[in-house]
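Retry 2 of 3 after timeout on previous attempt. Resubmitting structure tokens to design endpoint.
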């Protein structure tokens, strides 16, 4: 009835399914953003294809792409083992309540076990109670001690200035 396949962003049909799901998520109440234009989607494909630590998986339901999970593999400096960060979990509205989110998360947990990862991390909006239910079913929970997710938004000109300064500082060593 359902199956998981790896997303290949060099394949046109996978690109279309990927951006359709991502835009579905962005436009959802839990996404809260502006959908990606075609040019931004092309830029995203290129950037993700150049990230060897990026993987995405589709869940097919009765042959149709119904959802997706995106992940990034990293290293735990304390555990000295790999870890996987789940970045996005998306199930189209008309496919929800069919266990597909569970199937995606379970797949990534099995992948992490097979790759000797020390843990799987994810972030979830505090008002996304349905997603938290799914994650709790797999024994995810707040960290102990409790961590807080912080960010600092950079505008494009600021990023260029800081990158140039960092490269210059490194060359003076």
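Retry 2 succeeded. Sequence:
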């Amino acid at each position: 009835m359902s199956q998981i396949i790896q997303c290949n962003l060099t394949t046109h049909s996978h690109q279309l399914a990927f951006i359709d799901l991502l835009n579905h998520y962005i436009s959802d109440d839990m996404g809260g953003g502006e959908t990606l234009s075609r040019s931004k989607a092309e830029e995203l494909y290129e950037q993700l294809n150049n990230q060897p630590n990026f993987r995405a998986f589709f869940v097919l339901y009765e042959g149709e792409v119904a959802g997706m999970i995106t992940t990034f593999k990293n290293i735990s400096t304390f555990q000295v083992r790999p870890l996987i960060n789940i970045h996005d979990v998306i199930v189209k509205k008309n496919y929800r309540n069919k266990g597909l989110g569970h199937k995606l998360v379970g797949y990534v947990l099995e992948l992490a076990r097979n790759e000797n990862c020390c843990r799987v991390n994810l972030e979830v909006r505090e008002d996304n109670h349905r997603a938290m239910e799914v994650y709790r079913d797999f024994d995810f929970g707040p960290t102990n001690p409790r961590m807080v997710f912080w960010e600092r938004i950079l505008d494009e000109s600021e990023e260029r200035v800081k990158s140039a300064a960092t490269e210059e500082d490194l060359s003076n060593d």
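Attempt log closed. The beta strands are 2-6, 54-61, 64-76, 81-91, 119-122.
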